[in-house]
Specification:
This protein has 177 residues and is of the alpha/beta class. It is built from seven helices and five strands. Helix 4 packs across helix 6.
Length: 177
């Protein structure tokens, strides 16, 4: 079986850019499931941003997110090393962020997931938001801190990836695997 590496951190910290650059180096890239769902949801009438969702809507979104994440992970070629733009543990982190008890099935999937290494991308010096990632820098850092606590609670030691040009981040990550 190929190795599985996760990129986590706050929104807008360069995870998607890094996973795409690693794909150019021959690794399998799992895109961020949340971005896929949000982009789909934005096309629907009545769309609400994450921080405006009710507890019931958050739970529903997280269940859909879990299904999408598992769907994306299921198609990773068995013998290929893969980088994941977030994981099921990030689902638990977002529940923790909102102080909502995570659904048992999400905790179970996160507990059963096994990763060879988890990389924490630190905030970029040129942090910015986009149509999907609207959080301020302070909100993004709060999400990052929640991700750190959650991954640590699942017994993962995080490898911190500092803010640096993308080619240096690629080299840094490759040197750590």
């Amino acid at each position: 079986m190929g190795k599985r590496y996760v990129l986590t951190g706050g929104p807008g910290f360069g995870k998607s850019t890094l996973v795409n650059e690693l794909a150019k180096k021959g690794f399998y890239a799992v895109p961020e499931a949340a971005r896929i769902l949000v982009e789909e949801d934005q096309k629907k009438p009545g769309y609400k941003i994450w921080k405006d969702l009710s507890e019931t809507e958050i739970i529903d979104f997280q269940q859909r997110l879990l299904a999408k994440q598992l769907e994306l992970e299921k198609i990773i070629p068995y013998d290929m090393d893969a980088f994941l733009d977030r994981s099921t543990i990030d689902n638990v982190a977002y529940f923790n962020l909102k102080r909502i008890r995570p659904s048992d099935n999400i905790v179970s999937e996160a507990s059963n997931a096994k990763f060879d290494k988890v990389f924490l991308l630190e905030a970029l010096s040129n942090y910015g938001s986009d149509a999907v990632r609207y959080e301020s820098l302070s909100e993004a850092i709060e999400i990052e801190e929640c991700a750190i606590r959650t991954y640590n609670s699942f017994r993962y030691d995080l490898v911190r990836v500092p803010s640096m040009p993308i080619e240096d981040r690629v080299k840094f990550v490759l040197d750590k695997i």
